[in-house]
Design brief:
Layout: H1 4-15, H2 19-31, H3 42-54, H4 68-88, H5 98-108, H6 112-129, H7 131-135, H8 139-160, H9 162-166, H10 170-178, H11 186-189, H12 205-210, H13 214-224, H14 228-239, E1 248-249, E2 252-253, H15 272-280, E3 283-285, E4 297-299
Helix pairs in contact: 1-4, 2-3, 2-4, 4-5, 4-6, 5-6, 6-8, 8-10, 8-14, 13-15
């Protein structure tokens, strides 16, 4: 009999060219999970529906092919979860990756922090493995990939290290808003509020950034951006993946992103209200497009959890 890893690969292969099948497999993981684990799928399934709507999961053979990168990262998440469930159900074999081990831990003892650790480990593993596919995408798509990553890392920190993520607002807001059992977490992970729904995006990256919803821009530039080095360092330690910190370039997101293009990240970093938001949460923006420190901030208070 095939082991859990082989059976998971076979199961995912059946839906590889069927976007709705991918969604059904993702939903099935939570619907069939024992105990409270079934309550954790809101944000992930919402993001998958957004991906379906954009068309990024459409197969290469489609009249409008999707994205090889988005398909590959989605597949890594599906495969890890499917393998973990098979192992918990008694299938032969051992976990094929650390991310699968994290999903097994979650299924055996569901908890918000364990869900984030498993989910983010699978996503980060996909990012690192498929960076060559990302490099082939349009610049605006690569911008969105970086935003998706920093948002999901930030949301985990809101729950597990709220003072790092939100400073003085931590006790009142962090863990409650970021709990993956509640739909409020979708406010942070739903890129549909920030970016166009089409693939490929018809607008250049500069116009896309400036068209971002004001509340989303306040989150990205006023709250998250000043904390990126500490945020990525925490996530790298939590996921036991030190390579994650290499996806920043002096504090600026750098996944599949050449150094010479880093100034694009400053386009949305304008307006005195962003500085005010940063200061209110305990950090200070360092303005200036030519600053070698980029999005780094000077901490106004302790960033520990």
């Amino acid at each position: 009999m095939a082991d859990a890893a082989s059976r998971a690969e076979q199961r995912v292969a059946l839906v590889r060219d069927r976007p709705e099948g991918r969604y059904a497999l993702a939903r099935e993981f939570y619907r069939l999970a024992a105990g409270p684990a079934h309550r954790y799928g809101h944000a992930e399934l919402s993001f998958t529906r957004w991906s379906l709507g954009r068309g990024v999961l459409a197969p290469e053979s489609s009249d409008r092919p999707g994205s090889a990168w988005w398909r590959a990262v989605n597949e890594r998440l599906l495969r890890d979860k499917t393998e973990a469930r098979l192992l918990c159900d008694g299938a032969a074999g051992t976990a094929s990756a650390r991310s699968v081990e994290y999903w097994v831990d979650f299924l055996r003892g569901p908890a918000p922090d364990r869900w984030y650790r498993a989910h983010n480990a699978s996503i980060v593993a996909g990012y690192l493995r498929y960076e060559a596919l990302a490099a082939a995408e349009q610049q605006v798509e690569r911008f969105m990939m970086n935003v998706a990553l920093l948002r999901v890392l930030f949301t985990h920190a809101m729950l597990a290290r709220p003072r790092l993520a939100l400073g003085r607002f931590a006790a009142a807001l962090g863990p409650r808003l970021a709990d993956p059992r509640h739909r409020t977490v979708q406010m942070f992970l739903d890129l549909g509020r920030s970016f166009p729904p089409e693939y490929p995006v018809p607008l250049p990256v500069a116009e896309t950034i400036l068209d971002e919803h004001p509340l989303a821009r306040m989150l990205d530039y006023g709250v998250i951006a000043p904390r990126l080095p500490a945020l990525y360092a925490y996530s790298a330690a939590s996921l036991e993946e030190p390579r994650l910190t290499t996806l920043l370039d002096a504090g600026v997101p750098a996944y599949a992103w050449p150094h010479e293009d880093r100034t694009i990240w400053y386009l949305g970093n304008t307006g005195p209200h962003l500085g005010a938001i940063a200061r209110a949460s305990g950090v200070r923006l360092l303005w200036g497009r030519n600053s070698s420190r980029g999005w780094n901030s000077r901490r106004g208070q302790d960033g520990g959890g």
